[in-house]
């Protein structure tokens, strides 16, 4: 593959940071795709088409990685030499884990009661926690406190998963 | 070939550029390969129209008849033969594409047999067993011929539409059919996407649109979002057994009821009643009432009565729309446009209810039977390299998740649904036994957790893993999905670097060699012809490589290469030129490959320079 940026940020001419100009990402993404998408070379020979396919795939993956805050966080940690998915050394404090367990119990009882309003309220409050943690991830990462940043990332993983489960529960209740 | 793609540094649109220079119109067609009817359209200067036959009929019934003497008839003629020879007349073959025999749970007027290899079902006809791919290829051939006649010459290729929910096997089967029909697929395009393109909705900035497609026998509804030039299918739904035929049946029941007919009707009587009903339905799209006459009985059917008759059915379609909105978590007032597709959307009551429900603009300006083909033709024209004004890029998403079987019969998703394609994802596996040299993988598509609820796409064995202790070998499997939604799998053992490309054998598709054989069967070309063609092709390939390399060297050779590197490439060019004169196609091919390999590094450096230029924002303005 000929398109070999040092990292995904460079691919889109963005600074390596958690803070991200969404518009700039969109514009750069569109520009790259309109240049490298396989649709641009449908009549070329196999090798050109394979190359376009690989490049467009990479651009899509880079875009998806940077667009999602959670994936972006993991990617930044990876660039800093930290494996974010390495779970042997989860830096989750006990208070957080207890809180998570309580939340799961609350979720279970809300589902049992088919309490849509309660689910909505719960989602709102967890959403706020998410926003707060994303901000502190940024602060820690920018200060090169990678161990702390990783621990916040691992908390965010729990939070995203919980939000996803609330969504699924709501869907199920509405479906009925 | 690496260098060709960048033969116009910084411009990145060699196709369009070439077309500009030569002012050669590239010929391409759009094909709507439908369950009941198919259609071909062409586009020029951003406008498209469907192609009709000598009698002015544009729709080609998707029906193929096989006679005992091997004669194949397609379209109306085949449809007429169906009345007398239903066992040899294949209709609705689209329902069988990429499906196994066990998927067919409904009655067909023709007989299905299993293939020798247990995979794809075959249809028994007087002319031998035919696969759904072969039957579809016959329909495609008819459409391609119509396109060639109109455009006067060989075609660059075709855009063929497929339902948004078509999975890998169904898409692959469609592409195989095109290959068999001898037409190059520029792109497999989702039907709702095509309909949206026909209305130019792809040119709007941000839109949420609903495509309401009520055909002869199927109802599909798709919710799409356009965001920054990306067309995404958010959710699809519908009813595979609801369509215009059901509207007709309400009239048939009404006639039987009003006329007090309780006796069993003959086949001929039913047939005539069906056509009377269809006629009445068509009349009522224009008139407030119509006279219905069946044998001795005659009565008046008003549009209001008809509306009441079909209301239950129309409500079913609205319910499906509601479900799709809920699936995608989109509210009805977010919808800005509704596109009507399929002949049955001509029914006034359908339009009324859809318009009431959505409260958005309902598009009916383009003939709903032709709108999908029209969109496909517009896209085909752009893909073939004919450029008009802005270039629109359609980015599609994968409609169903791709994954593999893991322990306990569970499906692990590797590429989730709605991921923008093309996409490549790698997954690492390890051996679980000492000295293990093979590993089997089961590739699946679907949303459910259990393997048994997903569609099996392929099973393959990865061989040649170097024997090591358990867990030491790391095998990276890369799943690559192209812009058409078709998949390829590659595997690599990371600790030793052993690469093993795996060609997936589609569970219900054809193998490449089958297709090749079928294509060979259909031609009776002599071996010498083949040899001459191979030589010609290898020469053209070699000349193209030389040409591209020379022009690249002129532009960037001095700045990006060392003297030694430059000299090596020059030497390579001379070598290849000598080989071209030898007249040995294999040798030419090999020498081309070798030179091409030697240019990869150079191509890489040029690509990087090009990207920097592109992102600096100069190049695009410069050409336009």
Query: Can you give the mean pLDDT of chain A?
Result: 88
The proportion of residues in beta strands of chain B is: 15-25%
Give the amount of beta strand of chain A, in percent. Answer: under 5%
**Termini separation of chain A:** 49 Å
Q: Main traits of this protein?
A:
heterodimer; A: 176 residues; mainly alpha; Helix Hairpins; Monooxygenase; 2 domains; 73% helix; globular; B: 624 residues; alpha+beta; Nucleotidyltransferase, domain 5; Substrate Binding Domain Of DNAk, Chain A, domain 1; 4 domains; 6-stranded mixed β-sheet; 5-stranded mixed β-sheet; 16 helices; disordered N terminus; disordered C terminus
Topology record:
The complex is a heterodimer of chains A (176) and B (624).
Chain A: H1 8-11, H2 22-36, H3 46-67, H4 69-79, H5 94-112, H6 116-142, H7 146-175
Helix pairs in contact in A: 2-3, 3-4, 4-7, 5-7, 6-7
Chain B: H1 14-22, E1 28-33, E2 37-44, E3 47-50, E4 60-61, E5 63-66, E6 72-74, H2 76-82, E7 89-91, E8 111-114, E9 121-125, E10 128-130, H3 132-151, E11 157-162, H4 168-180, E12 185-190, H5 191-198, E13 206-214, E14 219-227, E15 230-239, H6 244-258, H7 267-286, E16 289-294, E17 297-302, H8 303-328, E18 337-341, H9 348-358, E19 361-363, H10 371-383, E20 402-406, E21 410-415, E22 423-430, E23 439-445, E24 455-462, E25 474-481, E26 487-493, E27 499-502, H11 512-522, H12 527-560, H13 563-582, H14 585-598, H15 600-616, H16 619-623
Parallel strand pairs in B: 1-11, 11-12, 13-18, 18-19
Antiparallel strand pairs in B: 1-2, 2-3, 2-4, 5-6, 5-7, 8-9, 9-10, 13-14, 14-15, 16-17, 20-21, 20-23, 22-25, 23-24, 25-26, 26-27
Helix pairs in contact in B: 3-4, 5-10, 6-7, 6-8, 8-9, 12-13, 12-14, 13-14
């Amino acid at each position: 593959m000929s398109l070999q940026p040092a990292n995904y940020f460079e691919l889109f001419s963005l600074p390596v940071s958690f803070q991200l100009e969404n518009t700039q990402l969109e514009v750069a993404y569109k520009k790259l795709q309109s240049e490298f998408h396989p649709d641009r070379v449908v009549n070329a020979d196999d090798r050109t088409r394979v190359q376009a396919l690989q490049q467009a795939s990479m651009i899509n993956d880079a875009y998806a990685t940077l667009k999602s805050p959670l994936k972006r966080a993991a990617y930044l940690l990876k660039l800093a030499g930290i494996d974010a998915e390495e779970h042997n050394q989860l830096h989750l404090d006990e208070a957080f884990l207890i809180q998570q367990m309580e939340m799961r119990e609350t979720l279970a009882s809300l589902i049992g009661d088919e309490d849509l309003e309660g689910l909505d309220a719960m989602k709102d409050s967890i959403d706020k926690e998410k926003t707060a943690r994303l901000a502190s991830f940024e602060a820690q990462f920018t200060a090169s406190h990678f161990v702390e940043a990783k621990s916040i990332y691992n908390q965010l993983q729990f939070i995203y998963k919980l939000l996803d489960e609330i969504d699924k529960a709501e869907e199920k209740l509405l479906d009925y | 070939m690496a260098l060709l793609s960048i033969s116009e540094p910084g411009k990145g649109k060699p196709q369009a550029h070439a077309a500009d220079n030569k002012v050669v119109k590239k010929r391409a067609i759009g094909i709507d390969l439908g369950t009941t009817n198919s259609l071909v359209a062409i586009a020029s200067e951003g406008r498209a129209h469907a192609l009709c036959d000598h009698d002015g009929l544009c729709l080609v019934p998707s029906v193929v008849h096989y006679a005992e003497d091997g004669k194949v008839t397609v379209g109306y003629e085949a449809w007429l033969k169906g009345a007398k020879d239903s066992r040899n007349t294949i209709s609705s073959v689209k329902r069988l594409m990429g499906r196994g025999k066990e998927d067919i749970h409904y009655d067909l007027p023709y007989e299905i047999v299993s293939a020798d290899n247990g995979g794809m079902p075959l249809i028994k006809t007087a002319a031998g067993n035919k696969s759904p791919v072969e039957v579809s290829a016959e329909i495609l051939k008819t459409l391609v011929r119509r396109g060639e006649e109109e455009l006067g010459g060989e075609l660059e290729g075709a855009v063929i539409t497929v339902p948004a929910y078509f999975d890998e096997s169904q898409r692959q089967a469609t592409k195989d059919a095109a290959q068999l029909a001898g037409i190059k697929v520029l792109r497999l395009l989702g039907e709702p996407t095509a309909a949206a393109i026909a209305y130019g909705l792809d040119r709007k900035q941000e839109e949420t649109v609903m495509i309401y497609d009520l055909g002869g026998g199927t109802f599909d509804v798709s919710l799409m979002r356009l965001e920054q030039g990306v067309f995404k299918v958010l959710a699809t739904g519908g009813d595979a057994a609801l369509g215009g035929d059901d509207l007709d049946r309400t009239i048939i029941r009404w006639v039987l009821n009003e006329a007090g007919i309780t006796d069993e009707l003959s086949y001929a009587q039913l047939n005539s009643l069906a056509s009377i009903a269809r006629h009445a339905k068509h009349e009522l799209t224009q008139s407030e009432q119509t006279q219905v006459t069946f044998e001795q009985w005659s009565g008046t059917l008003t549009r209001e009565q008809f509306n009441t008759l079909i209301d239950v059915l129309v409500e079913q379609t609205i319910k499906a729309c509601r479900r799709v909105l809920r699936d995608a978590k989109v509210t009805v007032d977010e919808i800005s446009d509704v596109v009507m597709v399929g002949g049955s959307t001509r029914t006034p009551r359908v339009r009324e209810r859809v318009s009431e429900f959505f409260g958005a603009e309902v598009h009916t300006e383009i003939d709903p039977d032709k709108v999908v083909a029209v969109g496909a033709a517009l896209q085909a024209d752009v893909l073939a390299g004919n450029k008009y004004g802005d270039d629109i890029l359609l980015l599609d998403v994968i409609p169903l998740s791709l994954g593999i079987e893991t322990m306990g019969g569970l499906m692990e998703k590797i590429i989730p649904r709605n991921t923008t394609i093309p996409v490549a994802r790698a997954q690492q596996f390890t051996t679980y036994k000492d000295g293990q040299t093979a590993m089997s993988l089961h590739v699946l598509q679907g949303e459910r957790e259990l393997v048994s609820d997903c569609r099996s796409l392929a099973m393959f064995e990865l061989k040649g893993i170097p024997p090591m202790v358990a867990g030491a070998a790391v095998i990276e499997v890369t799943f690559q999905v192209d812009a058409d939604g078709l998949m390829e799998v590659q595997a690599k053992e990371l600790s030793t670097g052993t690469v093993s490309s795996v060609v997936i054998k589609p569970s219900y598709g054809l193998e490449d060699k089958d297709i090749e054989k079928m294509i060979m069967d259909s031609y009776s070309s002599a071996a010498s012809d083949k040899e001459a063609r191979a030589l010609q092709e290898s020469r053209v390939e070699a000349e193209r490589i030389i040409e591209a390399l020379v022009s690249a060297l002129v532009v960037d050779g001095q700045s990006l290469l060392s003297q030694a590197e430059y000299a090596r490439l020059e030497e390579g060019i001379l070598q290849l030129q000598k080989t071209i004169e030898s007249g040995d196609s294999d040798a030419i091919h090999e020498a081309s490959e070798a030179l091409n390999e030697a240019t990869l590094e150079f191509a890489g450096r040029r690509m990087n320079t090009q990207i920097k230029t592109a992102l600096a924002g100069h190049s695009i303005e410069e050409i336009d």
